[in-house]
Design goal:
The protein is mainly alpha-helical. The protein has helices at about 15-35, 40-55, 60-75, 75-85, 90-100, 105-110, 110-125, 140-155, 175-180, 210-230, 235-240, 275-280, 290-295, 305-315; strands spanning about 195-200, 205-210, 265, 270. It starts with 15 loop residues before the first helix and ends with a helix.
Length: about 325
């Protein structure tokens, strides 16, 4: 019986040796680019990035991504040993791990327990469960890390009664919280707003709050522009607003057709509110059947649009 394995690590695969050689060489190249001392100032980083650009021909943004990825990996000893033994993960996937970790509160990022838990959870994520399993996508990796962050946050909540003693006086617990909640007035919807704050050093902070439907479109456009221009999201957003960058993006939402009133799902936002779903449904220009796409095949090197949509939604 075939043992659980990763398809990309199948030594019978014609591309196996080439892929491993590429992933290993890329990893070692970025290890060689790591600074010997800490980069503490903008001047230090400007000097380092200029040297690396002249020697590697890689943009400053990509330098930061991959060097940050290695710094993150150094805090995950089990995963680091696994990477250097198998070469399952490339620099893009290591960068996805670092970006997801960056969403954790600073207090958690400075917690040794978080890194131990994350190391264990990622090792579980990168342990195959079936033969020739496909490598986890960046969105799957992110979901694993977000789950670890939530678990650590929950463990950090203090127990109001650590010894198990419950107060004997005071209000009685509600027998039917649902009935009580239904009698409360509705929560006021937070209005759309834009906050602008002047910062030191000639910087300006923008904080934008919009509805989930509009926010989803903005986030998708920024992500697409950042990918196309190989730049940070903030730079992409600035370019889009000022008209220096243009992009075309397809926002995909998913809804089960065999379940009545099934929720609408977006790969990054998750389950959408009714208002957001209505906003995006009004913009729909094409509907793809995922049941058909799941069985579709193509002889082209590039997947067809329905197959891409199916794979994206499945992952």
């Amino acid at each position: 019986m075939a043992q659980p394995s990763w398809a990309v690590l199948d030594e019978s695969n014609f591309h196996y040796e080439f892929r491993v050689a590429k992933v290993k060489a890329d990893y070692l190249m970025w290890r060689s680019a790591q600074p010997i001392t800490d980069v503490r100032t903008d001047e230090d980083w400007t000097t380092l990035s200029s040297v690396l650009y002249s020697q590697l021909g890689v943009t400053k943004h990509r330098q930061a991504r991959f060097l940050d990825a290695l710094e993150c990996l150094d805090r995950l000893p089990r995963l680091k040993a696994f990477v250097e033994e198998t070469w399952l993960l490339d620099m893009e996937q290591l960068s996805a791990i670092e970006r997801a970790v960056g969403e954790a509160p600073i207090a958690i990022q400075n917690d040794d327990f978080f890194w131990q838990a994350l190391d264990e959870d990622l090792m579980g994520r990168f342990t195959p469960s079936r033969p020739r399993q496909l490598t986890p996508t960046n969105s799957t990796i992110k979901a694993t890390i977000i789950g670890t962050i939530r678990s650590v946050e929950n463990l950090a909540v203090p127990d109001a009664h650590p010894l198990g003693d419950k107060p004997t006086e005071g209000p009685e617990p509600c027998e039917n919280p649902g009935e009580l909640m239904s009698t409360l007035p509705p929560v006021e919807e937070e209005p759309d707003q834009l906050l602008i704050q002047d910062l030191a050093g000639g910087k300006v902070r923008f904080e934008l709050t919009v509805g989930q439907g509009d926010g989803t479109q903005i986030a998708d456009a920024v992500a697409q522009a950042a990918s196309e221009q190989d730049c940070p999201p903030a730079t992409a957003l600035t370019g889009l607003i000022l008209g220096n960058i243009t992009t075309k993006v397809t926002t995909m939402v998913y809804q089960a057709k065999d379940v009545e009133d099934a929720p609408v799902f977006h790969p990054e936002r998750g389950i959408l509110t009714d208002d957001a779903a209505a906003t995006l449904n009004d913009l729909v220009t094409a509907t793809l059947d995922m049941d058909e796409a799941a069985e579709a095949a193509t002889r082209s090197y590039e997947t067809t649009r329905p197959i891409r949509a199916y794979l994206y939604g499945r992952d």
